[in-house]
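Review box. Two proteins, two foldings.
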Amino acid sequence: MRLEDVTLVLRPRLPWEAVDLGCAMVRRDFGRVLALWCSTVFPVWALIIALMPDDPSTASLIIWWLKPLYDRVPLYHLSRRAFGVEPKWGETLKQWPRLWLTNFLPALLWRRLSFIRSFAMPAQMLEGLRGSAMRKRVKTLAVDGGGSGMMVSYAFLKLEIVLLLGFLFTTYSFLPESWEPDWSALLEAPDAIGLDRTPFVWWYVSCYMLAMTLVEPFYVGAGFGLYLNCRTRIEGWDIELAFRKLAARLTKPLIALLTFGFFSASMVMAKDVQQISEQVLKNADFEVHKAKTWEWVPDKLDLGKGPKGDFSAIVAIGEILFWSVVIVAVAALAIYITKNLHVFAFRTKKEVQYEVPKVIMGMQITRESLPNDILAAAMAAWDAGNAHQALSLLYRGSLSWLVTQRRVPIRDSDTEEDCLSHVAKHAPQPEAAFFHQLTGAWIQTAYATLPVTRDELIQLCARWPFADKGGAA
């Protein structure tokens, strides 16, 4: 890296002006930067998705966690272009494994949640420092630009969220109906409803990856612009570059002449300065005044020629009194705790006895009130033209099993909605999913006077999840 080859105008800038400079660098080479991003990041995303096609939540977490690795290839390209080097496509791709493996674990562990990641990454990747030297370097640069680096992370995080929401709202209307979950049922019992939300979550992850692809290169450029501005301010790159350009225009004889004249003038000026300084120091104002003061500092007790006292007995008596008081206090505390153990005893919460209801919403759910084979009785009631009785048998049998075998805390005053909520919280997922479907069919038949079809009843009987066809305990 040579300052003479820099393609930017180096001068101290305000922080957001430096951020704009970095974004301008990305805009200048956006096509190349985006192509490098797609060539290095998209294959990794495709591999993650292929390994976890049925777990989009975990896949999206891994994709988000690997963010620091994605930024390294764009930073490599921007740093070369800033100093007059046109990196070739093949050369950059050859550097891809080395760039990702350098400081791999620190970038994904203790530095992953750094708020100045884009600002510190050039120092970590481009200067070749390791360990404590690299930490000191980042700390030194952060004194001047660390606050701006945090603000850049905050601003681009908000920008990424806004872009993600824009993609979600724009593409939501194009989703197939089979992808959309049942929002009302999901809000009522999110843990008990057996819904396949995988396509819907993959749609969300795709929108997030698209938003990251468009925002992250500019985040890298903004941090690199802050880094260059910080080094310019601290190390005086603009002044050094100006002197180098000036020196390149001077010829060797002129340099020798200026050097000789400089040293000659320095010798003459040194003699004059020495004479003037001696005259100034002889003035009365520069006279050094000294004063002596005496202060008595007692080193040890001086009793003169009289007998010196022995205080060892007093010290021993004091120690005995002190420890006696401590022992008495500890003994008193132990006696108090022994006499009041009931105050410090831990109280265990009494087990709440649950009373199984016999009637719910006016319907008998005891085993005696139900037939031995509930499913056969329900189909017989349907064939006799009594759809209400058929669904009632299935619903009562399910409630009987759930309150007796699963100990679901349903009370006799609960409604269908209350029963559904209790079952979703306390019953196993297959039974809760079946009860949710059965409740919908029961409400539709009992209150909407819109009975289900025979196929739907057969499906409910086929999905009966309880121990036997009798259902109730």
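Next protein.
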Amino acid sequence: MTTAHMFTRIDHVEIVTDRPEETERFYTEVLGFRVKARDRIVRPGGAGDLKLTYLDLGGTTVELITYEGIQVGPAPQSEHLGYRMMALEVEDMNRAAEHLKLNGVDIVWGPVVRDHYARAEICDPNGFRIELRQWF
């Protein structure tokens, strides 16, 4: 079996949040994700239960994770090694920007237009950046 047939797609991206209701509303009501499933994992020994919400957009899943009963450290505030952000493709950058503005979401960077794309960034309720990309 070749590597191309072993790995078929990105299954999901995980976001740890201490604001689960606000985060779910943002991804569903503003960005158009739909709730795919919910789960709760009870961890023994006081390790903190996990509340999981799976959100779908066009076949890609974002898993919202909330640790209950334990403190979770903040996300890095500057450039760092590791995963940086996810990107959502938009059909029309101007229409997407107007929709976001009407929903109280500011574009925090861009849009920048190049020969083959336009790119901008927003933040979710946790302050995590999300790239918006329109391909030409």
